[in-house]
Amino acid sequence: MINAPRLAQVVTALEELYPLRYAEQWDAPGLIVGNLESPVRTIHCAVDPTMEVVDEAIAAHADLLITHHPLFFRAVHEVSGLGFRGEIVRKLIENHCALWVGHTNADAAYRGVADSAAVAFGLEQLRPLVPISDDESAHLVGLGRVGVLSQDMSLYDLASRVAQTLPATQMGIQISGDLNTTVKTVAVLPGSGDSLFAQVRDSGADVYITSDLRHHPATDARQQAQYESHMREAGVCLGKGNSSCPALINTPHSAIESLWFKTAAIDIANRLEELFKIRPELTVSTLNTDPWTLHLATTATH
To answer: What is the overall mean pLDDT for the chain?
Structure first.
C-alpha cells in the first residue's frame, strides 16, 4: 500500500504551485495550523475559513483545509476561546485538520486566482495587470490579468456573462458605464481592486472587473476618463485613458475569488498524484460565505 504524503510534503508542493515569494509584503500566507508529520489523504477547499467551512471540512474528515482568505489578517496575541479564531484553531487541531492559505501569492501565480477568473469570463491572450519579475517561472505572473474577448460584445452582455459565471449571492454585480458600449479588452482583478485604477487605465482596458469598489475612487476614475475623452476631442491629450472607459463591473468579493478552485482543485490533485503516486480526495465547498444576506433596492424619491 502506498503511504499518503505528509503535510510537510504537501505544503512544499502547494508552494511550488503558488510560491510564497509572490505574496504582498503585508500578507502572511502559507501553513497556519497543522502537524508537519501528519498524512494527507483528504483535502477540502474554500474561499473563507469561516466556522461553517471548518465544520464542513471536519465533517468531510479532511486532513487539510485550503482557503484563499487568511484566518489571521493582522498580528494576534491569543487564540483562546475568547474569540472565534481561537475556536477555529481549537477545532482544527482537535480534529487533526491542517489549514493552508493561498492568498496574494495565489492571486499572482500562474493558473492562480486572477488567471482562473479571467479564463472563466472567456478572456484570451492573458498578461498580468501588474507584472512580477520572476526568473524562476516560465510564465508571466503578477497581480490581475488583462485579456481580450474572442469577439466584441456589449458591456451588458459581458456583465451578463460575469453574473452567470459567478456563484449566487444576494448582492449580485453592479455596473458603471454605457450598457450598449462595445468592449473587447478586459482587466480583471479578483478581490479589492480600486487601488489599481491607474494601471487599469494604462492597460487600455475597455472594462474593469473587480470587487469592493468604493464610491469615491469609482466616481473619480469614471469622471477623469470621461474628462480626458472630452479634452481629446478638443485636441488636448491629458493622459492614457481611452474614451469614456474603463467601464466597471463590481463583483462580490468571495464569489469571484471562488473561481480559483475550478483550476486549483485539478492542479493540486494532479501535482500530488504526480509526486506521490496517490491522488488525494479533494472537495470544494459550496457554502455561500458572502456576508450579505438580503438586498433591498432603495425606493425613496426626493
So the answer is: 93
